[in-house]
Structures are given as C-alpha cells and as structure tokens.
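haha ok so turns out i had the wrong file open the whole time. this is the CORRECT one, sorry everyone. sequence first:
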Amino acid sequence: MHRRFTTSDGTDIRFTDHGSGPPLLLLHGFGGAGDDFVHVFDMPALARSFRLIVPDARGHGGSTNPTGTFTFRRCAEDVAELLGHLRVAPVYAIGVSLGAKTLLHVATRHLALERMVLISAAPRFPEPTRALMRAAAAAEHPAAEWTAMREKHLHGDAQIEALFRLPSSFADDATDMSFTTEQLARIRTPAFVVAGERDPLYPLELSEELRAIPGCTFWVVPGGGHSPIFGAARDEFVRRALAFLSAP
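then structure:
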C-alpha cells in the first residue's frame, strides 16, 4: 500500500514501505516510478529478505513537485528526509539512472548507506550528453508514449509535460552533476556499478570514471543500452546485485 510523506519544501512524496529484514531503498529512473521495479525483481520474494522502501521521485508517479524545480541534489535531500522520517539508517540502496545519480549525491554527503548498486550512472554530463538531453526536451511525443506516461504519472498532463521538458534544465545546469575524481574517491560506500556497453546517453568511458569510488565493483552489460537491467540482462543483474548486497 502506498504511503505519503511531505518534505521540508512541501513536496508530497509517495512511497511504499513493506517487507522484513535490512532496509533496501529502490530508486527508479527518470520518467518512471517506483512500481517499475516489478519488471526487475520478484518483489514478494525480495520483501522476504529486505524491508523495501520504494519512493516515487518528486514530480514522478504519485509524487508532486510544487516548486517546479528539479535537481538530483534535491532528490538526495528528499531521500535523506524520508529516511529520517522513517528513522531508518543505514540502508542498502539500488538506483537506476536518475536514482543512481541521486545516490551519488547521497554517498558524497556521507549519509548512511551500507552498500549501493548504481545502474546507468554518470558523474557528470559532457557536452554530447547535454546535446542529447536538449534534443529529448524538444522532441514530439507520440500518442503511445503519452498513454504509457499517463499510466504511471497520476497528476495529469501538466505533470507529464513538465517531465518532458526537464532534460533541458539538466543540460543547462553546470553544477548539479559535476563530480570530480577526487570527490568520488572520498565515497566510503561499497558500490556495484552497472553500465550498458552501448549506452547512448552515458558512453562507457564516462561510466568508467566511477571506478574512482574505492573498491568499486564494475559490470559492463554486453550490448546493453541505457538502464539495461530491464532487458535480457535482468536475471543476471538480479543474481549479481543480490550477491553484492548480501556480501559480508
């Protein structure tokens, strides 16, 4: 059952909290919602091993974004406030794209993460990535895409239009995603990084900058694109991710 939490800036965050065991935070990708994880994990089985905390990011799914602003840094603050509200720390965490970049902000703030899995993360946005983001924001969206988005996002077409426009603000923000090797090297959370070999948004050489995280484990999905865990690599990802999270 979904629950709600209001952040310090008045954002209403929808989330689920169920299961038993060590807390596991699941953070979805941009344009998605927490329910997307049913396409990766057997959620009832996972809930028998972990307490699952699964929010919708601000402006996504059933969550609001009353300020109209959106940064990955602010998403990390939302996560910190939610976990404080639940009095849960430390946590294990899995983040996909948007969720992975959020976790980089959480980890560099040295908040309580036991272990984290980062899928399709990037420490920074080079100009080719920013150009793709601007093009995505300017693109037309076919009816089928609108239908799929309406099934996920509960606050009407204005919410969806805001999401479609957001990549342009990511492209224009020079500070939000700008982690240096030195900053990454100060992370103390063990990390398992998953990258698609053919990710068009974050080329492999960009993802490999995350090897600066001390003790980082890295898996390149052969032939994989962006967020490759939803495709043929799903079963292998689940096996590898659960083994990493359960390691002593």
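The chain has a mean pLDDT of 96.
again sry for the mixup
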